[in-house]
ABC transporter permease subunit
Amino acid sequence: MADTSRVAGPAASVADRSWLNWLGVAPFLLFALLFLILPTSLLLVGAFQDAQGHFTLQNMRNLFQENILNAYWLSIQISAASAFFGGIIGVLMAWAAIQGRLPGWIRPTLMTFSGVASNFAGVPLAFAFLATLGRMGLVTVLARDYLDFDLYGTGFSILSFTGLTLTYLYFQIPLMVLIISPAIEGLRKEWREACDSLGGSSFHYWRYIGLPVLWPSIMGSTLLLFANAFGAIATAYALTGSSLNIITIQLYAQIRGDVLHDPNLGYALAMGMVIITGLSNAGYIWLRSRSERGRK
């Protein structure tokens, strides 16, 4: 009996501690339920209902209208362009700060700036770019008056595909720096020393060691940047209004607009966005797990 009580005692204490562990993650689970699971469920239900609440497939059929398909395609192009260039520039900046022979104050300064800039979006970011690169922006006027260079004479416009992509890069590049930095830090010095001792050059190190190790992290981080840009609406709407037919502005017009007001079609549009961003995030998670296994 005494032995049984001694065995039951530690088991009971472990069970009690497990409840405490679940209590610690309860706020996260509640947050995910209220702001992720329930809204997504409501979108799924609303996408298959009409204005009277009856079941219909018409909303899903309407997703194949030409203007909606063009909106999806334009959003994918802008997201892919900002993710591609943001990924390349972010990797180079992170590598220079972590493994480059730069002054010691560069790295903490870059990380601090990246933490702030990666969350700087919406109306303030749109206003900043309009004040800088708009038709009467500071850089535009200085280039015209002092360098005799007409930026808008080249066909550039801040309200165009190029302008919105450039604006997105402001938060895409810092986000890439933050995401890829741990992977670059994980490159062991012993690997470089082994390559050098075997007569390998820098090209050989990056060709056969560095890039193969970093490649899953770089691709996964780029997918995360794509999802981040694909779901952005505040910056695009504040910067371009309705001049660019991207899917987030189409969604806003269906949910809140006075002309194109069809909330259930908006739910269907949102479900399409959820599927695309979900695939991007799933790819990121898979590549991240692959990268972690490769370092073990």
Summary: The CA atoms of residues 31 and 238 lie 28 Å apart. The longest helix spans residues 2-46. The two ends are 46 Å apart (CA to CA). The chain has two domains: 1-46, 60-295.
